[in-house]
Amino acid sequence: MRYLKSSPLYNIPIPKVYGWNLTFDNPVGAPYILREAVPGINISKDGRFYALSAPNIIKVITELAKVQAELSKPSEFNKLGCIYEREGPNGEEETGDFYVGKMLSFPTGDEEEDAFREQYLGPFDSLQELWQARIERETLSAISNWSHLPSDSSIPSMLPPSKANPQQFGELLQLLSGLTTLFTPPKELSRLVIHHSDLAIRNVLFDPETLKITGVIDWEFASVMPLVVTGRFPDDLGWEGNEFARSLGKLGPTNQPNSPPPEIWDHHYYDWTSLNGVAPPPSPPSMTDYITYHHSPATDSIDLFTNPTHTPTSTALEYLSTTSTTSSPPSPPLPAPPTASTPATELTTRASRLIKLFYYRKYYAARLAREDFALTRLMMDSVAYVKFNEVVTGGAEKWFMAQEWVREVYWRLMEVGESKREVLRSGEGVVRIPEVVRRRGGGREVNLE
């Protein structure tokens, strides 16, 4: 925050920082940042954002896009990692001498494990170096933690043993390592920029009258990253659509005994563009066997997305804050997943609102293009890279969850031929993968057992 506020490169309203400590070894007993109070309101509370009129939502989107455009300016740093400020010779904190150091990571509570992970936090010279560091870390973790498994089905995972076992891990380890060389972003997407990592409406304060931004907060995990992995929409513009699509079977097969888990992405949203295919599922979604749904009895009657004037209970908010499995959950609680008995009118209402979010996302991308011509195709060209980065850095559990996607990407890139793969390695092309993978790319494997 101090760097961005002091740098002449950026024009972003950021509160002044008076002090901070990012460890648990301080009088407070937790990481903290002491900053100035700034005027403004948080319009994510109680679903206020979704209650705004369309013209006012456009104003909010425009303001957010301006922030991302500012952060997308070429950085003065040449490494990937978090920004730190060196202390002065006499312990002075405000020296103005900034540098890129290790990425930040949530402590696990295990000192030995935290010390092990710290070796793989950078800083890094390239995205490929970051990915290979994570792959090496996961390999060493497997060697340490899985060398005494009583059976192949003993790996702790939300997925069934058929989808999470040492053999699957070994295959994914090789596929991901090989693919890192092909996911070389082209030059226009390779420039290093400042990545907020959680640019969402809940982390922005707005003037209640003009809806202009008065302050952007929550910079703890901001870092220097290639532009290509910052091509993400604010969560408020679509995360709910992924859950709804998954519950209706839109993200891959879900009701067969050996079917793969549906695709789940934290930073890429399913595009609802029409009411086609919106119908109650024939039975309760079996994908709950693979991942815990963000829902509890406390939220049964709460749907701030379609009923933004409802005030959530503290019980519901507490549940969602402690059980969410994504790094960036949506601002309001999610409605319950539809079932065979869900009225068609309710499904249509929810889908219609998700279609509106599709157009808001496209307008957000259009505003980025308006602010900087170089960002015109960012949200289109970065999709596969954002997904790949999420998989690799998500660790073994994410590898297992995305295994069908990883295999599909591998086979599709095998089929394009070496000349086109060389184009990707050289950073002269863009990787494109279908929205939803259903093994269309082949996979020329025949099991003769």
From TrEMBL:
Composition bias type Pro residues, residue spans: 329-340
Recorded GO CC terms: mitochondrion
Region (Disordered), start-end ranges: 320-345
Compartments reported by the entry: Mitochondrion
Protein name: Altered inheritance of mitochondria protein 9, mitochondrial
One Pfam family this sequence matches: APH
Keywords: Mitochondrion, Transit peptide
Transmembrane segments: none
Domain Aminoglycoside phosphotransferase: 181-228
Keyword Transit peptide attached: yes
Signal peptide: none
SUPFAM superfamilies: Protein kinase-like (PK-like) (SSF56112)
Domain of life: Eukaryota
